[in-house]
């Protein structure tokens, strides 16, 4: 189980570096380990990550298979964290399917669970996703307000990565609202958070804290 968990941590860093292809075999190995040990929680988490990776790779058929299994295993585990992770991954899957209504529903379920268990890091991350989702659905004011909430949480928790991504989401919302000055100001503020003298791997480690 510990080796499977380590593989998933490597995958998370690879996702920050947009190395989805090399992440895929690591996740499939993690899944085999968790299935052999009958670790339902770890299996659900791995299936959710497989959904994310395959969706990013536009492998929709395989992504759909893992998406269904991730939700099933997460619900079986009755673990709120894994259920929230599965709903968040499901939101991304439905984004790939261009089913924006279901995408929002799944992300809102994830948000509720993250809030209930007090996972502020994951709460900020799903709020960032929701900010974009609301703007996609032409609810730009709600998108802006959601990005502001994500920004507040990430600043309080000193989460550098979420702080930067919240500012980018907020800048996007301002831009879509026609508030160009606010958009530019916010995006320039985000740019300052990306330390220029670090290599990609060092940045991935820093922004994953």
Features:
11 helices, mainly alpha, single chain, 209 residues, 0% strand
Spell out the blueprint of helices and strands.
Blueprint lengths: L1 H15 L3 H18 L2 H17 L3 H18 L2 H17 L3 H18 L2 H17 L3 H17 L3 H17 L3 H12 L8 H8 L2
Structure, explained:
The protein is mostly helical. It has helices spanning 2-16, 20-37, 40-56, 60-77, 80-96, 100-117, 120-136, 140-156, 160-176, 180-191, 200-207. It has eleven helices and no strands. Helix 3 (40-56) runs parallel beside helix 5 (80-96) and helix 9 runs antiparallel to helix 10 (180-191). The chain starts with a helix and ends with a helix.
Rg result: 17 Å
Question: Whole-Å distance between the termini?
Answer: 22 Å
Q: Report the oligomer.
A: single chain
- Beta percentage is under 5%
Total strands: 0
Structural class: mainly alpha
pLDDT average, as an integer? Answer: 89
Put simply, the count of helices is 11
Low-confidence stretches: none
Please trace the helix and strand order, writing H or E for each element. Answer: HHHHHHHHHHH
Q: Level of helix content?
A: over 70%
Question: Overall 3D geometry?
Answer: globular
């Amino acid at each position: 189980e510990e080796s499977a968990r380590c593989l998933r941590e490597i995958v998370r860093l690879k996702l920050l570096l947009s190395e989805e292809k090399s992440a895929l075999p690591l996740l499939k190995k993690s899944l085999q380990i968790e299935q052999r040990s009958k670790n339902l929680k770890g299996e659900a988490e791995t299936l959710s990550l497989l959904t994310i990776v395959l969706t990013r790779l536009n492998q929709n058929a395989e992504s759909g298979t893992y998406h269904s299994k991730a939700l099933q295993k997460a619900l079986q585990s009755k673990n709120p964290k894994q259920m929230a992770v599965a709903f968040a991954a499901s939101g991304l899957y439905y984004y790939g399917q261009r089913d924006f209504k279901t995408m929002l529903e799944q992300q809102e379920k994830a948000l509720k669970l993250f809030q209930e268990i007090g996972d502020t890091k994951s709460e900020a991350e799903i709020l960032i996703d929701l900010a974009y989702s609301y703007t996609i659905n032409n609810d730009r004011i709600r998108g802006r307000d959601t990005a502001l909430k994500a920004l507040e949480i990430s600043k309080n928790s000193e989460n550098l990565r979420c702080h930067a991504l919240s500012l980018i989401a907020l800048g996007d919302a301002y831009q879509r609202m026609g508030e160009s000055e606010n958009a530019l100001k916010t995006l320039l503020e985000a740019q300052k958070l990306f330390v220029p003298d670090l290599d990609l791997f060092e940045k991935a480690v820093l922004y994953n804290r």
